[in-house]
Design a protein that fits this description.
CATH superfamily of the largest domain: HUPs
Mean pLDDT: 94
Strand order of the largest sheet: 4-3-9-10
Strand content: 5-15%
Distance between the termini: 45 Å
CATH architecture of the largest domain: 3-Layer(aba) Sandwich
CATH topology of the largest domain: Rossmann fold
Number of strands: 15
Length: 494
Amino acid sequence: MGLQLFNTLTRNKEEFVPLEPGKIRFYVCGVTVYDHCHIGHARSAIVFDVIYRYLMHLGYEVTYVRNFTDIDDKIIRRANEEGTDYRTIAQRYITAFYEDMDALGVLRPNLEPLATDNIPGMIEIIQKLMDKGIAYQSGTDVYFQVEGFPSYGRLSGRALEDMMAGARVEVDANKRNPMDFVLWKGSKPGEPAWDSPWGPGRPGWHIECSAMGNRFLGKTFDIHGGGKDLIFPHHENEIAQSEAAFDAPFVKYWIHNGFVNINNEKMSKSLGNFFTIRDVLQRVHPEALRLFVLSKHYRSPVDFSDETVAEAERGLEKLYHTLAAVKDRTPASQEGETAEKALQSQDSELFQETLALPQAFTEAMDNDFNTAQVIGYFFGLQRHLQRFLDRFGQKKLKGPAAALARKAASTLRQYAGIMGLLSLEPEVFMQEQRMLKLKATGMMAEEVERLIELRQQARKNKDFAEGDRIRKELEDKGIQLEDTAGGTRWRVTV
RNA sequence: GGCGGCAUGCCCAAGUGGUAAGGGAGCGGUCUGCAAAACCGUUAUUCACCGGUUCGAAUCCGGUUGCCGCCUCCA
C-alpha cells in the first residue's frame, strides 16, 4: 500500500509519491526567535521529527529544511524594550531553541537557514512579482496583489469574497485590496534595514519561506509542514508568491499539526496560557513528553494537563521497567543465534507478536503517521513480554527463553527508537526520572539511600516494625520503595 | 457573518463499511514478612442525538445539539 498522508491542500489522504524517486524534499516552518518556545512548539517539533525519522526509515534520502525567522516586528520590539540589537535577541533565542530541541531529542534538520541570510533571494522573488505586475509599491511598502493570483485561498479553502466579508481585516490605505499582504516593508529611521530596489526596508514574513524553500529545495518540493495556524495566511501567501513568481506548483503535500490546548483552549502567547518547554522539562522527562505527544494523532488537538502528562510518564516507566527486567534477568553475553523453532517453542504468542511488530508498525505509520496506534502495539508487546518473564518467577532466564526475551525487547526498542522513544538504557532512564522527580519532594538522593540502608539493617534484624516505619516515612514524602531480588529500588510517585 | 474540525467506557485514546486496539484510574485475585512493582480477571450489545443508505455503519449521507479552531501575530 505504501505511505498515505493527509494533504491539507486536497483535504484527503493521498498516496505519497515523491517528485524524484527515492528522494524527499521537506520543509517545515521554524520559529520566530523572540522568546522561549512553549509546549505547542514542542509538539510541532516532535511530530515533524518523527515524520522525518520515519521517512528516513523508509529508505528515502530526505533533505529537511527548517528555517529561523530572525527578523520581524516582535523581535524588533523586544530589542527596543531591552535597548539592544535585533541580532542579540535572535541569537539568544536561537541558542535557547537548540537547548530545548536537544533536550527533547529532536534531530537537527539538514539545513537551518536564517531569514536574514536570504534577503537577496527574497528581493529576487519580489522583483519577479513586480515585473509580472502581481506586486505593487505603495508608499515605502511593496504588496502582493491577491487578485492577481486566481487560486488564492485554495489551501485554506476560502474565497476572497468570504474573507473580505469577515471584516476583521485591518484597513490599510496603502493596500488596493484589504487582503493584499506585504512583501517588503519600508523601514522607519532606526529600524533594521536592507537595501532594495524599493528603498531600505525589511522583508515581509511570508516571503522568507518562499525564498528559502526555492533556494534549498527548488521550485517545487514534496512536503511542507507546520502548525495548523500557519495555513492561513502564512502558507496561503507562500503559495501565492512562489507560484506566481516561478510558474510552477510550490508544494505537493501540505502537512499541518494540531494544537496543544490547556483546558480545551488553544495554548498561545497571546492568550498567555502557555508553558515553556524548559519549564516543563524541569519536572517531566523529555521522553515522557514525547510519548504524551505521540499518544495522539498529530492532526487532533491535545489537552495538556498534569493528569494527561502523568499518564504518559507511567506508561513510559512501564515500558522501561520491562526492558530493565529483561536486561537484569538474561545473560549479559549473547550466545549466538537461536533457532526460530526454539524461540517459538518458548512462547508462540510472544514470538509471533515480536515478528509481527515491524509490519504492524509500518502499516500504522504508513496510515498518515498513526503513532497512537503504534504505541498501542508497543504496550501489547511489552505486556506479553512481561508476562513471559513473570512465568519464571524470580529465576534468571537461560538459553532459548533468554534469547526470546532479548529478541522481543530489542525489537521493541528498535521500533520505539524510530519514534525517538526508549532511546536510553533502562537504568539511565530510571535514574534520570528519579532525579527529576526527587526535586519535587525536597529530599536528597543521599538521604533516601541512607534511610533505605537503615531499613535494610532493621529488616536483617527482623525488626519489621522499624522497617515498615521507615518505608512509611519515605512513602509520605513521595518515595516508593520496591524490594527486588537485586536489592531495594526506589522511585518517586509525586 | 464566512470556512473548517471534533464528539468512542470514570479519564486519555486508536478505529477510514464486516461486527469496539491500547494506556491510566477503580475493584477482585496471584506474588510479597508487610508493601510496591508486575501479572491475571473485571468495567461500552455500544461509539452525542434523530433519521437515511446497506445483508451489514462508530465508520457513508442528511438533520439536530455541544465543544473547538481559522478568518489578526501565532507551532
